[in-house]
Amino acid sequence: MEYVLSFFKRKRSTNNKFCYIIGSFANTAPNLRTPQSDIDIICSTNIDEFEIRYFLKKEYPNIPPDIKLDIHYSTPVNNTVEYNICYWQNSAYLPLISNNSIHMVPVRGNIDLPSVLRNEKNNDLPEYFNKVKKIEISHPIHFANSIKNHYGIDKFINTLNSSSLGYQEKNLLKNLLQINKISSSVHDDNYTHISIDKETNQIISKNKTIDYYNFYRNYMGYGRIYSFLYSNVWIKNMEKIFRD
Predict the structure, then answer these.
(1) Is 8 helix (H, G, I), strand (E, B) or coil?
(2) The model's pTM
């Protein structure tokens, strides 16, 4: 009896399965956007990675078998599954396990620095630097990878240098790009999202607000002289005088 109940339970759960490809691969399939790209997957909680890879390989046989998957498990609410996309991204999705009772609804993300860097169709970065009061970074590692894998380091540095950002902000971003040299403190949960406030010279994170000087000293491991030179507010004031 227990076996029979288990069988019907598995069968019932199978009927509720769904699995869809979202993100860049949903727009570029069967080709990856870049050689470093992963594949974003959204699926029901009753599917494991092995099953996903089986259907992925069946549908796209030329995909590398060890391709990195970014799997998001979701439980439908009123038969609706919301999935996140970048502000510029096409809302396309591709079925691996289709389910006609599920309605897929895209949710566009905020415009932050990593998402701007990933937008290869439009060069939004100069306008972003020049207009925003706070530079939003979803994660220092994500920021660095977005530059290396999508925008290009040299192009980023050239765009940064020619922007209207202040001396301090330019150097902060250049230093954050060197993620391997940054103190491990920047990798903790407090820094999964940071804002660089151009007006107050502060770094705002999940639980902390800290000035540029102490961010250099305490979280990036630089000495007092370096931290002072690259963070002091008088530099910004001198820049403003020369511009005016």
Answers:
(1) helix
(2) 0.73
Token pair recorded at residue 117? 């860097």
Comparing C-alpha atoms, which of 69, 16, 65 is closest to residue 42? 69
C-alpha distances in angstroms, 124 versus 147, 158, 170, 188, 241? 14, 14, 17, 29, 28
43-99 pLDDT tens trace: 999 999 999 999 999 999 999 989 999 999 999 999 999 998 889 988 999 999 999
Q: What is the DSSP letter of 77?
A: B
- For 105-117, write each residue's pLDDT tens digit: 999 988 999 899 9
Q: How many CB atoms lie within 10 A of CB 196?
A: 24
Report whether 9 contacts 41 (CB < 8 A): no
Is the separation of the CB atoms in 100 and 139 below 8 Å?
no
Q: How far out from the chain centre does Cα 205 lie?
A: 16
Check residues 14 and 222 and name the one with the higher pLDDT: 222
SS3 at position 179:
helix
Write out the two tokens for 27.
């727009």
Task: Specify the pairing of strand 19-22 against strand 103-108.
Answer: unpaired
Sort residue 152 into left (φ over 0), alpha (ψ -120 to 50) or beta.
left
